[in-house]
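USER:
I would value a second opinion on how I read folds in token form. Give me a protein, with the fold worked out from its sequence. Write it directly below this note and I will take it from there.

ASSISTANT:
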Amino acid sequence: MDDTEPQTAAAKVLWHFTMSLDGFVAGPEHDMDWLTGFAVRPGLIEEYTRTTGAVLAGRDGFDSAIGDARPYGGAWQGPIFVLTHHPQDARPADGITVLSCPVEEAVQIALDAAGGKNVEVFSPTIGRQLLERGLIDEIDLHIAPILLGAGIRLYDNPADDRIIRLHRVGDGNPAAAINVRYRPVTTRRSAAVPARDGRPQAEGNRPC
């Protein structure tokens, strides 16, 4: 699979995440410890630190995953806007502006602050709302070779029965499927499984 072309700074609104193969952008309780053990192409971090002008984040992600940390391991310095319904109890942090306004207004504030560079949306909920309003320019994903099984999904909207079709950015058929192929490398947790009476039983002698 060919990688996409390098990101450009063009005042775009990017819904940008590293995502597990099964569609999660954070583990349970917004855990991000799984973001290790895989590689990205050389220069990728520098690409985004150069093209990003502002970040729009949600309250849950800010409280649990971002906090006082800066995106890209501190390599990027710029304005971060946190959109919340409860600004009165948001803890202050350097470089963070807390917003309580409609999502359309919040993204425009971030675009104005980005100075012609891109706004990165670090929130599944905000990204979904912007997508529904036609305010997402690109969904920018790095698919990690990992299956989480649970956590925070990139797109989770069970109340809406619409199907959102996407066009891939770049050359070729924009509606073409992307092929990926992996081999599992995780070992079994245990060679023994519990028997019905609670005592360990060998794998080859497991009751059905």
